[in-house]
Amino acid sequence: MDFAQTSVITTLPVMEAFYTIQGEGFHQGRAAYFIRLGGCNVGCFWCDVKESWDADKHPKIAIDEIVETASKEPGRLAVITGGEPLMHNLDELTYRLQSEGFETNIETSGSFPLSGHWNWICVSPKKFRPPTDEALANANELKVIIYNKNDFAWAEKHAANVSAECKLYLQPEWERAPIMTPPIIDYIKENPRWELSLQIHKYINVP
């Protein structure tokens, strides 16, 4: 992996940053430091962090300060999320985090060009702004939010464009989880390469 510092970005709009348990996907259950960046134009109507969409509403914090604060926690898994984090160049942030011993994970729609140095890329494709071929080719994890039964076909469309090693997850949209979890379970039983992802942090009431 090339650790060359190619970015001149020194600040990023941070909506929030917190130490918690990763609640979703492959790394579920691990202690993780989340850095939620402001800015998103994907526009999911069911988004549960719409307050992240306008980057100008969130303070621009120096990358030095972001990394210093993260380093005070004992965990060394950093998850960069949003909003849509790839609206920003993430080379410097991830370089600095990895230099401090962090694994760097990203949760992205994949709709913008990749930047940053990553140990794990989770692509969660959205119909409102589809992922790039580059994002799908580099995905370690494909996590598809299931809002209705038409989303299974959407999931398969994108599963056809990731690597054979990419982990595949179906996750019910939170408000519709009681309705959509049973058909997801049935679908996984018929298509066992998929796995179930649940937002366990919401069930156990942590950030």
TrEMBL record:
The Swiss-Prot or TrEMBL record describes its family as follows: Belongs to the radical SAM superfamily. 7-carboxy-7-deazaguanine synthase family.
Which coenzyme or cofactor does it need?
Mg(2+); [4Fe-4S] cluster; S-adenosyl-L-methionine
Listed PROSITE patterns: RADICAL_SAM (PS51918)
Q: Name one GO biological process term.
A: tRNA queuosine(34) biosynthetic process
Q: Where does [4Fe-4S] cluster bind?
A: C40, C44, C47
Q: What is the lineage of its organism?
A: Bacteria, Pseudomonadati, Bacteroidota, Chitinophagia, Chitinophagales
Name its pathway.
Answer: Purine metabolism; 7-cyano-7-deazaguanine biosynthesis
**Cofactor binding, note field:** Binds 1 [4Fe-4S] cluster. The cluster is coordinated with 3 cysteines and an exchangeable S-adenosyl-L-methionine. Binds 1 S-adenosyl-L-methionine per subunit.
Broadest EC class assigned to this enzyme: lyase
Q: Which positions are annotated as binding S-adenosyl-L-methionine?
A: W46, C47, D48, G83, S124, P125, K126
Superkingdom, natural source? Bacteria
Report keywords, A-Z: 4Fe-4S, Iron, Iron-sulfur, Lyase, Magnesium, Metal-binding, Queuosine biosynthesis, S-adenosyl-L-methionine
Q: How does it assemble?
A: Homodimer.
**Pfam families given in the database record:** Radical_SAM
Q: Where is the Radical SAM core domain?
A: 27-207
Q: What is its EC number?
A: 4.3.99.3
Task: Write one Gene Ontology MF term.
Answer: carbon-nitrogen lyase activity
Q: Which InterPro entries match?
A: 7-CO-7-deazaguanine_synth-like, Aldolase_TIM, rSAM, rSAM_sf
Protein name per UniProt:
7-carboxy-7-deazaguanine synthase
Q: Describe the function of this protein.
A: Catalyzes the complex heterocyclic radical-mediated conversion of 6-carboxy-5,6,7,8-tetrahydropterin (CPH4) to 7-carboxy-7-deazaguanine (CDG), a step common to the biosynthetic pathways of all 7-deazapurine-containing compounds.
Which reactions are catalysed by this chain?
Answer: 6-carboxy-5,6,7,8-tetrahydropterin + H(+) = 7-carboxy-7-carbaguanine + NH4(+)
Q: Which residues bind substrate?
A: I21, Q22, G23, R36, T81, P207
